[in-house]
Amino acid sequence: QVQLVESGGGMVQPGGSLRLSCAASGSISSIYAMGWYRQAPGNQRELVAVITNDGGTNYADSVKGRFTISRNNAKNTVYLQMNSLKPEDTAVYYCNGSPPRTIWGQGTQVTVSS
After folding, report:
1. How far apart are CA 27 and CA 76, in angstroms?
2. 114/61 Cα distance (integer angstroms)
3. Contact 45, 57 (CB under 8 A)
C-alpha cells in the first residue's frame, strides 16, 4: 500500500505563505484524483483542494484564490502552495486520494498566528 509523507508545515504570520509537499512511497499516477485535506482541532477532516491526472483542479470556497495544488507524477509528489494565509487556515494538513485511497500519513501542522 502506498505510504504518504507530508512536510513543509510551520508557523507563519497572517498574510504569509507556505508550500506543502506530499511524497508517496509508490506511484501515484494510477490515482486519478489527489487531494489535500485539513483537520483543525474539534473539527472533521475537510477536503480543501483536488487535482486530477489531466490537470483539473477544484478548491474549497474557503481557500479559492489563495491555494494552488499541483502534482508531479514522475516524482510521486503532490504540492500545495498556500498564500495569504489566515488564522482560520490553522490545521493539520494531509494528502490522499480523492476519495481517500490509502492509509493516512502523519500530516504536517500549519499554524497561522501573529
Report:
1. 6
2. 24
3. no
CB 102 within 8 A of CB 4: yes
The size of the chain, in residues, is 114
d(CA 92, CA 111): 9
Largest alpha-carbon pair distance within the chain?
41
d(CA 31, CA 66): 25
| pLDDT tens per residue across span 1-50 | 889 999 999 999 999 999 999 999 999 999 999 999 999 999 999 999 99
| Residues with Cβ within 8 Å of residue 99, at least 6 apart in sequence | none
